[in-house]
Amino acid sequence: MSESHTIAVAMSGGVDSSTVAAMLCAEGHHVIGLTMQLWNQRRLAGHPGMSEAVQGRCCSLDDVYDARRVAETIGIPYYVVNHEQRFEREVVQPFVADYLSGRTPIPCSLCNNHLKFDQLLMVARQIGAAQLATGHYARVEFDEDCARWLLKRPADIRKDQTYFLFGLTQEQLSRTIFPLGGMTKPQVRELARRYGLALAEKPDSQEICFVPGGDYKRFLDAYLAERGEALPDTAGELVTSSGEIIGEHNGIHNFTVGQRKGLGVATGSPLYVVQIKGDTREVVVGSSHELYSRTLRTRRLNLISIADLLEPLRVSVKIRHRHEPAPAVIEKTDADEVLVTFDHPQRAITPGQAAVFYDGNIVVGGGWIV
Q: Which of 37, 180, 348, 351 is the most buried (most CB within 10 A)?
């Protein structure tokens, strides 16, 4: 079969990517399964707070086993590609550094942007596959009018994963296909049953692959201890937005913007974290209305539907995965900086998260909130 009909499938061991592999096989393509081994799930076992169990996490060793079993079921070649060192360098270490400097990172976007698509497309080419298919809920198509590849939201908006894919380049999009973009999750599970896949009922992974139980504070302790490093002293003062010192805290990595519980101070009205100052190690607290802001700035910009942002553009902007895109205007204020001005104030804009720009269902681009 010609190279154009050889498709590599990124198999995570979940129902979505497994169904994609089975679908493409049924369509007559020559399919090759690829799984990235990114993190040894048992590496920190035994450290305080680190669970022995690895269920429910993306890319676990159990997922590798499940992906291999699916590949055997549908009769396709299957390879595991080990990128643990690069994953640690480009995803885990920036994750740790961000938290210790007062930001709240999104490791899944870092992984997609700088590792998964970059490396899997390279491996796909090496094994003769012209395209890479994944189980993401998104759509990609070529627009003849603007001569650009477009990333679009899927039919099942509840499963929309475009927020995590905003960093994909034109070259990457040109070689990537998302077969589930027009389907709903129940339809995918039904298709998995029809293809006889044993994991048709497998629950979706809910956790960051290297942070068991979602407790990133315990992960930071265990990871640094394993490396023989002490947790840096990021303790400082709790201050109000007017500068009044009302208490002390034991580390800025224990806080995120919008947090209410665990502040360690009692006042007559609820207080929330409204800002974390990494340079002075101050945690600024205030009332609920102080969490709202109309503007943010992003850097490390990636544009998809347009080549450049030459003038202010009206879009809708998502500031976190579960955030409903809000109307705004974006404009360049520097070579790699975009100012976002919302029509209405948005709650808990958080440095370290992404701001993704939409024109209807089309992803215009995005950047990292600073």
A: 180
Question: Is residue 364 left, alpha or beta, with left meaning phi > 0 and alpha meaning psi from -120 to 50?
Answer: alpha
The count of other CB atoms within 10 Å of the CB of residue 146 is 11
Pairing of β 236-240 and β 282-286: parallel
Pairing of strands 139-143, 30-37: unpaired
Residues 6+ apart with CB under 8 A from 267: 246
Residues β-bridged to residue 9:
33, 133
Give the 3-state secondary structure of residue 208.
coil
What's the CA gap between 164 and 159, in Å, rounded? 12
Question: Which of 312, 315, 215, 208 has its CA nearest to residue 262?
Answer: 215
Report d(CA 370, CA 299) in Å as an integer: 7
Which residue, 300, 124, 100, is CA-closest to 216? 100
Which one, of 361, 356, 359, lies nearest residue 338 by Cα?
356
Per-residue pLDDT of 204-231, as tens digits, reads 876 677 886 678 888 898 899 889 998 8
pLDDT tens-digit profile of 183-199? 999 999 999 999 999 88
Cα separation of 115 and 126, whole Å? 16
Structure tokens at 298: 């992003």
Q: Give the global pTM.
A: 0.91
The secondary element (H helix, E strand) that includes residue 81 is: strand 78-82
Contact 304, 166 (CB under 8 A): yes
**What residues act catalytically?**
111, 209
Whole-number Å distance between alpha carbons of 155 and 116: 24
- Are 339 and 333 within 8 A, CB to CB? yes
Q: What b/e readout covers 84-114, taking b as 16+ CB neighbours within 10 angstroms?
A: eeebbebbbebbbebbbbbbbbbbbbbbbbb
Per the CB < 8 A criterion, the answer to whether 131 and 21 are in contact is no
For residue 272, what are the CA distances in angstroms to 225, 240, 282, 352?
30, 10, 14, 18
